[in-house]
Amino acid sequence: MRRTFLKALAFSLAGAFSTVPAWSQAAPVELEFYYPVAVGGPITKIVDGMVAEFEKGNPDIKINSVYAGSYQDSVAKALTAHKGGSAPQLAVLLSTDMFTLIDEGAIVPFDPLIKTEEDKKWLADFYPGFMANSQTESKTWGIPFQRSTIVMYYNKDLFKEAGLNPDAAPATWDELVSQGKKLTKRDSDGQVTQWGLEIPSGGAFAYWLFQALTTPNDAILMSPEGNEVYLDKPEVIEAVQFWHDLAYKHKIMPTGTTDWGTTPKDFLVGKTAIMWTTTGNLTNVRKNADFDFGVAPMPKSKQGGSPTGGGNFYLFESATPEQQDAAYKFVKWMTSPENAAAWSIATGYVAVNQAAWETDRMKKYVQEVPQALVARDQLKVAVAEFSTHDNQRVTKLLNDNLQAVLTNAKTADEAMKDAQSEANRLLRSYK
């Protein structure tokens, strides 16, 4: 009996040591990852698929994705969580949130994680236009991911109907006005049935579309340090006046303000022949337009140009050293040439590094969708998106004053001088 017991015990111990017990296996490093759902389409499915693929190749890392709403919702939730001691370790937030996140002590720079020559080569490959909203004071605070420029979409069928060349979008402000008049249709009662142009001006992104007017007019709105703005310069006021005149003088655009989400809907149903919006809408337009369409850069006044836009990866100070390493690994994976190309093709956002455009997949894509090259090529004349310290309040006052002009509540001169005065007050302590 005793021999049987010892034999059973020996067998049991042998079995116990033949496999690693569950309690001794290292738990995966967990990351909470905030992601904004800012553009229409199956963005969450695409992100989920990429996360699942990363986890499959990196079973020691677990990523918990939190879809936090709009960009504005996401940064508000991230900062609230930071102040409450429950911040995420990683987030995609607007590139323009960089100064605010730094001022709040919410994020840490990526530089200490960039150690090898391969790391440095990866960082150097991002387009300089995107890095303008990702670096300050010789530190890298954001890694470009969901990035864009503003481009002009136009309905080639409606151009043909109006007797215009469907392969030649307006290249200057004068051409925008003259062609816009031919593209604007009215019924027998004088009611507009088709607009020549729509530019989003309502909500939170009026300032961004405004930069598609100020940049071609050779005007920069803020300092690289984010502590000074130049909103009352003559070139800036001239750009505001032109935006107003498109509706009230030239009558090729709706009066008042136009919501961000309205513009692509109107374009897809033929209510407007031209729209200005993010290149991030390219996949949406490709899939849903039942007409031939073109994509073109911003029309020139004195030069070409557009602001960059979109979101960066940010690393939060809440991350432990192990979580920082895991987050960095994930960010590098997401922005690798193959994945940056795949993301661009799936969403319409601009592939953020030059190597992505050299992949076989991207080369094949641009042969099929040459419109995708417009945003990339426009990066040569792109400027940083409007971003300052105390960014939400400064941006809101600029938006409010732009919308006041577009609703005839203020003149362009009054609005920009008011915006400059108030911005000076808000930024005084940061100089």
Describe this protein's structure.
With 431 residues, the chain is an alpha+beta fold. It has 2 domains: 26-148 and 309-383, D-Maltodextrin-Binding Protein, domain 2 (3-Layer(aba) Sandwich); 150-307 and 385-430, D-Maltodextrin-Binding Protein, domain 2, CATH 3.40.190.10. It is 44% helix and 15% strand. It has helices at residues 2-18, 43-57, 71-83, 98-103, 117-124, 128-131, 156-161, 173-183, 206-214, 234-248, 262-268, 282-288, 321-334, 337-347, 360-368, 372-378, 391-406, 412-427; strands at 29-35, 61-67, 90-94, 107-108, 135-136, 139-140, 143-155, 185-186, 192-194, 274-278, 293-296, 306-316, 382-383. Strands 1, 2, 3, 4, 7, 10, 11, 12 and 13 form a 9-stranded mixed beta sheet that branches. Strands 5-6 form a two-stranded antiparallel ribbon. The protein is globular. The termini are far apart.
Task: List the main descriptive attributes of the protein structure presented here.
431 residues; alpha+beta; D-Maltodextrin-Binding Protein, domain 2; 2 domains; two-stranded antiparallel sheet; globular; disordered N terminus
Task: Give the arrangement of secondary structure elements.
Layout: H1 2-18, E1 29-35, H2 43-57, E2 61-67, H3 71-83, E3 90-94, H4 98-103, E4 107-108, H5 117-124, H6 128-131, E5 135-136, E6 139-140, E7 143-155, H7 156-161, H8 173-183, E8 185-186, E9 192-194, H9 206-214, H10 234-248, H11 262-268, E10 274-278, H12 282-288, E11 293-296, E12 306-316, H13 321-334, H14 337-347, H15 360-368, H16 372-378, E13 382-383, H17 391-406, H18 412-427
